[in-house]
Amino acid sequence: MPLEERACAVSHEHTMPTGPASLESDAWSRLWRAGVLHSCSTAIEGNYDGEIAAFWNARFNGLQARQRVVDIGTGNGALALLAKQHAAKRGIDFDIHGVDAADIDPPRWASTATPFDGITFHARTRMEDLPFEAGSVALVTSQYAFEYSRAREPALQEIFRIIGHTGTAAFLLHSADSLISMTLRQQHEACALLFDETRILDLAHQWISSLAGSPASTSTSQGTAQIQQAFQSASTRLVAAASALPEAAILRKTFHYLHATLEQAQGSPWEALQYLANARDDLENERMRLQHLSGAIMGLRELEGLHGQCIAAGYASSLLSPLDQAAGSRMGWTLVVSP
Length: 339
Known about the structure:
The protein is an alpha/beta fold and 339 residues long. Helix content is 48%, strand content 12%. Helix 4 links the parallel strand 2 and strand 3. Residues 1-6, 9-24 and 41-47 have low confidence and may be disordered.
């Protein structure tokens, strides 16, 4: 698979839709309930590998038995599991915690063969208000999470508080020069086509409603034929867009949902309508996560500014570096905060 196609899509293809989400953070809660271990699940099977895993294992190398590790924005605990596995290879244990503002429950939802025993998760917990004593944390980790904070300055100060003068913090941050950022434009174009231009989900609903004989539907065969024609025209546009936007994973997810919806409609239009309603909700939450990602991506000046804040706060050995998973595949920038 080309490296460009391995960029994180912030989606999980072919996930069964599960119903509506009511709060902004639930757009992410739903992703974790789908069972993915991390938000790069369409690109990396299992846990993080390659240079990403190497970066984190280098951080864990400096830890001693029973020292505390806090993973911020843990999702379904991918980094927490890496820390646990690293400690096990050394024959020791870390005191591992995973924190997330979303309603997470990795032991219940995550698809992994490795148990979460020994890891404590803190759901619905903001990074600006962490439940740890000052100076009690040896290592804070954050992969594609810190930059999502709407209050980065308070979040950074809270991290400084819990690591004190002896701990360290390490971030992998979304950057404007990454493959993830480059694919985001295509994802946004696909969302505009799906929701604003073709409105294909509305057309699918109208078509299946007409087959179900819904009172709100057009009851004549002529009206049904017109709806079907409009749906097919929209489908043709989306198929053409899929060729022009090869990185738009949300299009592939939409195709899957529409195919499954139409198959169900042959047997039970009413069940198909419910499936389609859940699919719409899942896709709308996907669009919300992509919008969040747009706000999280950091330019080089922002990254350098964050690095400078760490230096100014007394973490004089802090280091900012690009991270490439392979040649030509920039995944973001790392920032290691240390005194």
